[in-house]
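Incident review: delayed structure delivery

Summary: a single-chain prediction request sat in the queue longer than the usual turnaround. Root cause was a stuck worker, restarted by the on-call engineer. No data loss occurred. The affected request and its eventual output are reproduced below so the record is complete for anyone auditing the incident later.

Affected input:
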Amino acid sequence: MKVLSVASEIAPLVKTGGLADVVGALPAAIRAQGVDMRTLVPGYPVILKALKGGVQVMTEGNLFGGPVQVLLGEAVGHKLYVLDASHLFWRDGGPYAAPDGYEWWDNAERFAALSWIAARLAHESDQKGWKPDVVQAHDWQGGFAPVYMQRLGASHDTGSVMTIHNIAYTGSVGADAMRDLRLPWEGYNAGGFEFYGRISALKAGIAYADKVNTVSPTYARELTTPEFGMGFDGTLAHKGGDFSGILNGIDVDVWNPATDPHIETYKVLRGKLKARAALVAEMGLAEASGPLCVVVSRLTEQKGLDLLLAALPGLLARGGQLALLGSGDPWLEGQFREAAARHPGHVAVRIGYDEALSHRLIAGGDAILVPSRFEPCGLTQLYGLRYGTVPVVAMTGGLADTVIPLTVATRIAGVATGLLHAPGNAAALSEALGTLCDVWANPGLYQQMQRNAMKHPVGWDVSAAEYAALFKEAAKTP
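Output delivered after worker restart:
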C-alpha cells in the first residue's frame, strides 16, 4: 500500500511540537506493515538545504502567487516530496510566524498550496509513476487536501484520512477567500467547511475525508463532547465509526537512555543517578530533600502551567525542585523567570527550545510534570516512561491512556507507572505533587514505579498496525 503523508513539519528538520515527531517516526514504523509512506512537506529553507538527490516530479505555473515545482528526494532517512515555492516558504522565522512572532498573513494560501499539490499527486501521480492509495492529511495545514481531491476527481480511486493532532488550531480564514483558495461554493455550509461564518481548513478535512482519526482513544471520545470539541463535536460525532483514536508512539531509538548521545547513558536505575547529578550541576541546582521535577513544554494555559505556578510553593516546601525548558506565553515566561529568581538553587528555568537539553532534563529528572487542561496525546510523558522519570499528569486525553496511576489496587499489584490528577485544577495538582513527595520518601515504591515505567511499551509497534488497518479501510481499491 502507498500512502502520502501531508504535513507542515517533520522531525528532526522542522519541529514546533509533537506533530513533527509523529510525522517523522510513522513512515519507518509502518514500513513493517507493508506500507510505503512518503511525506509531502513545504520547501522551507532548512528542508531544501537538507534534501539529497532531489529531482523535479511536478510543476505548476501559478500556485497562489507564483510558480512552483515539486522535488522528490531524501533527507535524514525520509523519502520526501518537497513543495519548492519560494514565494510561500522561503522566509526567515518559523513555519507559521515571522521573526516578530506574528503569524504570516498568507498562511491560508501557503498550506492550501500544500494541500493542492497533495491532491494533484493523488490524481495524476508523479513523473516517476508513484501514486498513493491513501492521502493522510495532518491537522489544518493539510485539511483542504480531501476537498481538492474531490474537486480534481482523485477521491474516486484514492482514499483520504484526516489526522487531528490538536483541535484547538482550526485554520480559520474569512469566507471572502473562497475563490482565491480554489474552494467550491457548494462546500460552504454546516456540513462542509463553513465554521461560524468563516472557512475552516480543519473542518474541511473532517467533513471531506473518508476516515478521521486523532492521536489517542480518550481524546477521540472527548472530542465528541461540547466540553472538549471546540465546536467540532457535532461534526465528529456525525462521522460515527469513521472517527477513531490511535495512540501515538515515540521513536525508541532516538529516545533510548542506553544510547542517547545527549546524556550520561544508563540501562538500569543506578546509572540514572549520573544523569541526575549532571543535570543538577548544569541547571545550578542545590542538593535537596525532595524530588527533582522537570517540565519540557510550550508555556501556555492549555498545558496547565499557570496551575503549576500556583502549586509550586507546596512542592518547594516539601523539598522538591523544578527545572523547566520551554517558551510561549510571555506572561508565563516572565512568571517562571521570577520564580527562578525568588528560589535560586531550587527553581531553574531555560526559555527557548533546545532538543539536547530536553533529553538531559528527562533523563536527569525524578518526575516529569504534564498538568494539561487537555492533551490530545502528549509525548513528554512517554519520554519520561522510557527514561524512568515518573510522570505526574492530568487525567485527560492521551495522558490518561498512557500512564498507569498509583492507586490502592495498582500498588498491591505492583504495576503503577505514574500519578494522575484531575485536569484544570491547581488543588488537584498540588495534591498529586504531595503524593509524589510521599512516594519519593519511600524508595522501594518509587523505584518500583521507575522500573515499571522503563518496561512500559511506548514505541510504535501496536499503533503502526492500527494505522495500517485504518489505511486499508480508507483505500478505494483492494
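Verification: The chain has two domains: 2-249+461-474, 269-455.
Action items: add queue-age alerting; document worker restart procedure.
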